[in-house]
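Section 4.2 – Deliverable D4.2 (structural model, holo form)

The reporting period included a commitment to supply a predicted holo structure for the target in complex with beta-D-glucopyranose. Inputs used:
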Amino acid sequence: MGKLGLGLAVACAVGSCAIAAVMVGRRVRSRRRWWRVVRALDEFEEAASTPVGRLRQVVDAMAVEMHAGLASEGGSKLKMLLTFVDNLPDGSESGIYYALHVGGTNFRILRIQLGGQRSILGHDVERKPIPQHLLTRTSEEFFDFIALSLKEFVERKGNNLQPSQVRGKDLGFTFSFPVKQTSVSSGTLIKWTKGFAIDDMVEKDVVECLQKALSRRGLDMNVAALVNDSVGTLAVGHFYDKDTVAAVVIGTDTNACYLERADAIIKCQGLLTTSGGMVINMEWGNFWSSHLPRTSYDIDLDAESQNPNDQGFEKMISGMYLGDIVRRVICNMSLASDIFGPFSSKLSTRFVLSTPLMAAMHEDDSPDLSEVAKILEETLDIYDVPLKVRKLVVKICDVVTRRAARLAAAGIVGILKKIGRDGTGGITSGRIKGVRSGKLRRTVVAVEGGLYTSYAIFKEYLNEAVAEILGEEIAPYVILKVMEDGSGIGAAMLAASNSARSVDTVQVL
Ligand code: BGC
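Output (structure tokens):
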């Protein structure tokens, strides 16, 4: 080999070494970036963790806050609203009743025929979108639209009725917003949630507004019950099973209610009910406790929301937010590394990843996680990520969902603790009793809402956590029962049970 040849060979060798060094360097850097992401995921998992000890602290905090909210108006972030529902349907109701459910961008009209003996003989439902512009107009325009839709429904569905079948056309009105009730069929709106902003309605009696709109449309119907969706769910639960004492809604939004002893409602002195109890609408979405495992993502989500410092529990557990928490985690990882490819601006768009899409990724059981890849591409403009990154996305969904389901479970056990159905002695004067002294009774909690009914992993995590917190001795006594469409049907049932009563069963002395 001449000098030139040798020179070339050396140059080639040096070149190859340099290329190899660059490649190794790249690989090392990429591996480092990958481990950084894995570490970030570990930290997130740790911050969002819900070991049973922490869940028990949340249970206690929920029970104590419930007590505080019942002791004085504004005594807790839990509003603990009176509902004036003191008797729940027991299955003996009969006749035809209508119900309206306003609680989101779709509303529902229902007509049910109750046959006594815990039976529903007929059930018609119509879902209608509420035109977007009505969500920010006047209460008159809004209720005119509702009343007209109801009128058309009654005319379509009710034309072959025998007059004896229509008991005064009593109507149940499910209104899934915080309302300060003044009787079972009246109450003023405290504030709007869910994107509604009909300003002239706040602090107005919602039943009066609806009743006036019904008269304007010439509809001879009487609003016999105004109920929160959680209360409707409890009513249906009790209609089928008299051991139902509480209800939880876990869908886009969340709430819970339960049957309380009238004498425990300290803020309402002199409250007398014939049953000795009253359903309390907790508005538990606003629950807060320092024991809740809050991460930096929750803090950012709250700060950027329309209602900072409000609905803290809801922001951790409900369908409105879970997808967005996942998006925030992915966004952060994508900013810190290139594992998701070039940064996609979609990742900065709030709520672009909905909870149903997140659930679909979480439940993707294909070997190559093709559903995850599809959703990343179609929703987030993230293309061609390797399998290990898809697995990481599934893991993020799992952390977020598991925390939500387990916290909701702790909330449920908190209610059971407050009413002495968790096997401990419950609470007295706001202090938790630790000794297992309560008598064990079968206890049913009615559950409604897509997160629980349609997201199998969420449901499994929630059920598992309830059993874990209660322990194997108590858990068999607590049953969670799904009530499909409970909130609307329950309102019709409450209209039935209230219209059957001619005297007021609740008095405030
Ligand atoms: C409302 C509650 C309602 C819950 C579930 C919350 O935003 O404040 O009144 O029960 O959503 O629909």
